[in-house]
Amino acid sequence: MMHAFGYGLFYASVGVLLLPQEALHMFEEQHAIFLAVMLALAGVSQLVSPAAGYMSDRTCHWMGRRMPYILLGNLMLFLCLGAMFLARTYLYGYTYLALLLAAVISLNVAYTGFTGLVSDVVPLTQMGFASGVMGAMTAAGAVTGLVFLGWLGEQRLDLAYGVYAAAVFFCTPFTYFAVRDKPLSREDSKVSSAAELWKSYWISPASHGDFFWVFVSRTFYYMAVSVQIYILYYLRDTMKEAEIKNNAQKYTAILCVISQGASGIVAAIAGSWCDSFGRKPLIYLSCLVMAMVYVGYCFIDTYPWVIALGLCYGSSNGVYLAVDYALAVECLPNQDDHAKDLALWSLPIATPPSHANRSHHPVSTSGGARGGGSRLRAPRRRTVLKLPRATRAGSNAGEQRLRDLCTRVYQRYMYTGAYRRYTITKVHRRYINTGVYPVFFSFMPLDLP
């Protein structure tokens, strides 16, 4: 299960901590656009998983059906991490994008082999316990990544590549030596065809039965979870305490670590529950509690309540993670040819956030009731401020007063919602002595202090 630890460490921190800083480092003028490109590449890379699962089901190798994909994927990931470090050091931005795509493809190929390997070696009677351990290790990796990269800080974030590479280097031998992957004989191997490979990307109730509904429910689950990307702005804009507002990033990290820690602990315990009580009752209970937590966040404005609800959310999410994989394996349409189906099961991890962001984009950009609700894009506007004559001398006091005026205008014109906002992007200091000071506003996603 050490592979799940490395997978959680990478996926939990790379999109939240690493890529935003790397986009700013290499594409300073267009960092928002290139961050979107990076996240899109990470999402598109998931499409390799069904093909990797299909080929894994038909692989005849002395190391087994799954192990070659785990080892090859991790080897390529290890090499790509080193190359990405060099690309970001020498500011080869477009090369970095290509390497990022190759790295995430390698990660997904290895994870496809891993999910197939677990279902191969663990009997159905123990699948609940194995699913719980798998969820707990994923959460432990996520907490480790968030804590360690948060400790490194923005100035030393380039060391993150060494952290990822070390995780790959130490976790891969554990997976290789802990499990013996039974080889598939050529007599039992199925013939590959392009038509069957294409069908591995298709899922329906007729072809997959109950597994289709597991896939649909998991898609909606990750769409709901994707709203957590706004938690930093939620703390910044709704909390009463000035300390929380001014240090929203710090308190967001604390909340994430506490919630993920609770999730991992509960997942390790709840795995055995589903073998006794069944899978679906625990799924219903966990989703109900998580929905109630989301409702609760609408009515609170103090950080202790945020932490309390975060613990409730993390605990219920741990129950879901413990049962999720076991339920998917139990509903597989074909137990002998299942790696491609488990690869389909993993697709919602990457695909829903983009759809979810579009679904609540009008809410976060319309300005609430004042914005009318139907305006999806705010117009660019130019505001000209006439300053008092006392500021025209260019003195320190005048410049401070100027900054105060700009701050008030910024607070007046920006929408203080979750995702996009008006921001002052350019200030022409040479107009200080003229008495007319233009402030240009543009509409872009920007993480402001």
Strand arrangement within the widest β-sheet reads: 1-3-2
Q: Rg from C-alpha positions?
A: 25 Å
CATH third-tier fold name of the largest domain = Growth Hormone, Chain: A
Query: Distance N terminus to C terminus?
Result: 39 Å
Mean pLDDT: 77
Number of helices: 20
Whole-number tally of structural domains? 2
- Taken in chain order, the helices and strands follow as HHHHHHHHHHHHHHHHHHHEHEE
What proportion of the residues form beta strands (DSSP E)?
under 5%
For the record, the CATH class of the largest domain is Mainly Alpha
Category from helices, strands and their pairing? mainly alpha
Low-confidence stretches: 351-395, 410-449
What general outline do the C-alpha atoms trace? globular
Under the CATH scheme, the architecture of the largest domain is Up-down Bundle
CATH superfamily heading of the largest domain: MFS general substrate transporter like domains
Helix content: 55-70%
Largest sheet: 3 strands, antiparallel
Total number of strands: 3
Question: What does this protein structure show overall?
Answer:
- With 449 residues, this protein is mainly alpha-helical.
- It has a three-stranded antiparallel sheet with strand order 1-3-2, with helices on one face.
- A hairpin with an 8-residue loop joins strand 2 (421-427) and strand 3.
- It has helices at residues 2-26, 31-44, 48-57, 67-89, 93-121, 127-152, 160-178, 194-199, 205-208, 210-225, 231-238, 242-246, 248-277, 280-296, 303-330, 339-346, 352-359, 361-365, 368-371, 396-413; strands at residues 381-386, 421-427, 436-444.
- It is globular.
- The longest helix is centred in the middle third of the chain and has 30 residues, at 248-277.
- The protein has 20 helices and three strands.
- The chain has two domains: 2-184 and 191-359, Growth Hormone, Chain: A; 381-444.
- Helix 1 runs parallel beside helix 6, helix 1 packs antiparallel against helix 7 (160-178) and helix 5 (93-121) crosses helix 16 (339-346).
